[in-house]
Amino acid sequence: MRGRSVLGIGFGLLVDAVVVGFWTLLVTLWALSAGWGRLQYYLLLGVGVVCYLVVTAAWPAPRE
């Protein structure tokens, strides 16, 4: 049982890292093509990550 929960946590962290990495890549390419300044880039990057955290924090935890 303990191995499944560790794998579940590891998989969840991997999914989070992939989603945030994809968001970072998307915002970076968008900002470079639009010629945005650093402030706009970091604001959009931060808002996207915070929105992701707010949405996923409301999801119910998996049962053990």
Summarize the SSE layout with pairings:
Elements: H1 2-34, H2 38-57
Helix pairs in contact: 1-2
Q: Could you explain how this protein is built, in words?
A:
This protein has two helices and no strands. The chain has one domain. By secondary structure, it is an all-alpha fold. Helix 1 runs antiparallel to helix 2. The protein is elongated and about 45 Å long.
What's the β-strand tally? 0
Report the total helices: 2
Query: How does the major sheet shape up?
Result: none
Mean pLDDT: 87
Q: State the distance separating the first and last CA atoms.
A: 8 Å
Total number of distinct structural domains: 1
Per the principal axes of the C-alpha atoms, what is the gross shape?
elongated
What's the quick description here?
By secondary structure, this protein is an all-alpha fold. The chain has two helices and no strands. Helix 1 (2-34) runs antiparallel to helix 2 (38-57).
Descriptive keywords:
single chain, 64 residues, 2 helices, mainly alpha, 0% strand
